[in-house]
Amino acid sequence: MTNEKMKVNMTVNGRERSAEAEPRMLLAHFLRDELGLTGTHIGCDTSQCGACTVMVDGAAVKSCTMLAVQADGTEVTTVEGIGTVDNLHPMQQGFWEEHGLQCGYCTSGVMMAMIGLLNENPNPTEKEIREGLEGVICRCTGYQFIVKAVQKAIQIMAETDRPIPAKEAVGEVRS
Ligand code: FES
Ligand code: FES
Hints:
175 residues; DNA polymerase, domain 1; five-stranded mixed β-sheet
């Protein structure tokens, strides 16, 4: 395989972005190293932990399992695209209110995975939330507070009539 760099174009958090990538470059590294979106974390690089989860064309994807060139032409949403400090996404608000994190390393990936879950199932049971968390590893919280945070997010969405889709990106905040 050639290592010659290729131009990769994608819409990230509502903005057209373009950068060069070697064919072997993972989407996770492309987002962090080429686009400076370091809110997407890398915990394992072997598709175990889910810290790298982003939305690609509306579906939650572990970005260490996808090459950057495979994401060419797609719409990608990272944690920077779902809300701002002054206008938190309901998922972020839920994590804030229910203390759904400790060290925070897993948190961006967990939130993106849960947004993906709610895109498919807007009103999951606690069991379904726990099943949805199977693909993400949190080493700190014991998951109880994460489940409560997701339930709070669902409650906020119901009370504010605010839809979940991550495509409804409201801005970009560099972390
Ligand atoms: S870094 Fe992608 S799953 Fe762990
Ligand atoms: S809050 Fe530390 S790994 Fe989840």
